[in-house]
What we know:
- The protein is of the alpha/beta class.
- It has helices at residues 2-8, 69-73, 81-90, 120-125, 133-145, 165-176, 200-206, 231-244, 261-274; strands at residues 28-34, 43-51, 62-67, 97-102, 106-107, 158-163, 183-187, 214-220, 225-226, 229-230, 248-254.
- Helix 3 runs parallel beside helix 9 and helix 7 packs parallel to helix 8 (231-244).
Amino acid sequence: MLLASLAAFDDYTNGPDSFKQPGVPEGTVYEHEWSHSAVYPGTTRKFWIYVPAGYDGQRPLCLMVFQDGEGWVRTNGQIRATYVLDNLIHQKAIPPMAGLFVNPGRKLPVTDLKRRPENRGLEYDSVTNGSRYPEFLVTEMLPQVEKRVRLTPDPEGRGLAGSSSGGICAFTACWERPDQFRKAFSCVGSFVDLRGGHNYPPMIRKTRPVKPIRVFLQDGTNDLDNPFGNWPLANQEMAAALKFSGYDYRFVMGDGAHNSKHGAALFPDAMRWLWRDATEGSNR
């Protein structure tokens, strides 16, 4: 019984939507570097822009922004987001969209690429008035994307995704700037007391009017438990607050640890749910 239980723990696997499929056109990915930030001066970062197959430059595209972008853009990684975009766009399950994959900033001069980017906690975990990341996206990153594609100005056509601190960051961008972003996918989100994230549940309960955002949360019962908080309980508090206030949300709790296995397996269906009312013919 114990061996069977251990074998079942955190055993999530990706479905076919997360792999290259025969006959599905592939989008193009362009790699860039940004070392001119006014919002986060003295930093540098890589970012990648995904352009869907067949884009003609005429129609404005929807957009998904991925935090810790390098992990999401890799086709041999856990989440394989570009394959998911290729497949779901081809199926007309989501509208044609661009992808922006952004790494957190490293302090200049960069001396050790193996270290975690020093600016990650500041950028991703800062909550409400302490967060400048939405401003960074809107004023610095989106103009870079628009050098390659036309983006919809409609916030209903813009979403974000991230894991751990990137997950709370995706929510923060929607919470702070619903005029720009209205869809968030959070995998094992860090809604704990790193830089104020534990304050979100009471803020969600008390803030009126309800913000026009849609949120998909994922976590696992074996996620982190440390002095900053208990990740599974924090995500349950988030879900309860979103339910109490009448938000359009979905929460999936599994048995996973602090990794992207379950989130990766859910990601295609999370995208279908987030974009369920955006048709292929939408003029966003």
